[in-house]
Amino acid sequence: MSYDIKGKIALITGGAAGIGYTYSVELLKNGLAGVVIADLNADNGNQAINTLNTEFGANKAVFIKTDVTKFDQLEAAFKLAISTFGTLDIVINNAGIMNDAHWELEIAINCNAVAQGSLLGIKYMGKNNGGKGGVIVNIASILGLQELAGCPIYVGTKHFVVGLDRSFGTPYYYNLTGIKFGTMCPGVTDTPLISEAGKFALQGYPDLGRVLAEELGSLPKQPPENVAKGLITLITKGENGSVWVSEGGEPIYEVAIPERQTLRKNNADIKFKIVNVISKNFCEMALSTNFRRANEFAASVYRCFSNAAVCTSTPLLKRDYSENTKPAQCKVALVTGGARGIGYHISDSLLEAGAKAVVLGDILVDDLEEATCRLNEKYGENRALFQPCDVTKKEEMEKIFKCTAEKFGKLDIVVNNAGVAESEWDKVININTTGLVLGTILGFQHMGAHKGGRGGYIINVSSILGLQPLFSMPVYSGTKWFVIGFTKSMGSEYFHNLSKVKVMAVCPGVTDTEIIKNAGKATLPTFDKLDKEAAKSLASLPPQGPEEVGRSVIEMLRDGENGSVWVSEACETYKTVMPDRSTFKPPPPCGGHGKKKKDKHKKKASPEDRKVCKNYDSKDQEKKAHSKNEDQCKKDHKHDDTCKKDDGKHQEKKVHSKDEDKCKKDHKHNEKCKT
Question: What's the pTM value of the predicted model, to 2 decimals?
Fold first, then answer.
């Protein structure tokens, strides 16, 4: 999907210094007609445009002071591009910070502003809005593809960008808007962000700043110019939705992120295929009429078939927790978003598995009271309690944790389940990321051995959409990618050794909850028929009831490893194996051969090389066997057997060099060769 930069107009956020500034330089070198630099630092911004206009010509660059977390200021930058240059073709959402010490601001800049910049790019460039289309590049990081203990929240934000872009970079949006989305993941780059990283670690964790500095110091470094050159490749040659890495001063390369179905630890793809067949027949009915009946039928058929054909263990629905295997025995748990759906059924499963008590938190007060009454009727008085709580408000979250610890004298399990999927995408980010981070931090404070606690468990609820893109809900998908990156980083050896708290993530599949029932209402506004497409895309996935996720959490508490990611889908639970980021990099072409066309296959390739190089065939092998050197040619032609390896015209093409006339004169046995 080629794209020509010449004559185009670009807007770059965070473009006054560092990588952002070098983007402007490289784009202008490649024929860019003009650039708008949007940045909060006015001094750096004015200096940047003065330098650019001196080097590349007057009025090539303009600057506007912009706080990207403020919608009106960010949109003003887009309007400036149109009013100054008459058009806009390229948007680079580059503004970002690494500052876990101020993680709320970090999320606002790295997540909210990138989502807002993408939507504004569609508004001002999309063909659906009268524009010409164009390119949007969102800047993530290699930490959007791996975990890092030193900056877990930053890691989460960069996972968000990757998930957001993979959902925006789908055919639906490109066909509608004509905009190509691409993601750039720079490695450690020599910018102030990296050199001062040790100051920005999450507070309250001894030596975490040093850990961060050491972790970043162990990764290969590069100058900003290397990333900028890579950006040109991404824009001009990258496919829609592609993700690229620039690190260590090496040329940029596109990564191949594995399909979700390949991540499961135990290979049982047959199960997924079975359920998929079932879901095609019943999911449409489930989403439109009676989800429960369709789910019960699909789940029962699935369990029967999987037990018979795959010889699985006893289905989860029939599992009996004996006294010595109850992973929640005598534990005290806190579950956010516990009033209904998945949160309620996780609470139910915890009590069934022996929990001493469960405290439910939610903003739905009436539902909370009803849920608590049902649980107490089932398991006994005061086994379940509730506390109204908005997970985005720190004081309310602190209150529910404090009340739980004071009531029972301890806290053992925290389940950060609260989440939404709504058309108000900024609310989605706030609840699904901010609320979950706050719950995790408070969990460490109340259970961590470094704070006088006895350790414990934190289960963060993500989604299968944290492992795959979904075009109909790109922001929601991005938040669930955030949960994966953040959880794996908090589940590192550093945090576990310090706190004795085990952190894991569960990724429910399509589950009978309000989010699924109202999926059509949760899509982004202003996009044609996206609500119907959302229901259709979810209907293609196998269904289950929320009680299955509750059982999956019990499985995780019993068998899960720190930092592990689990999937609960179609009535089964399995652990995922997240591959190392280095495996995303494509292998060298032809096993290291062919750096230049003229030298390709100069040396005889090994069998292993021939497997890698698709262009290596029998003709190439014969050409290598015969030297172009005339003396070697004479030796080769002395033996009839050599000449007779192939027959007819094919043999003549293989044996004779391009200098056939000379070869005829030198070789007296020419006729013999022709046979």
Answer: 0.81
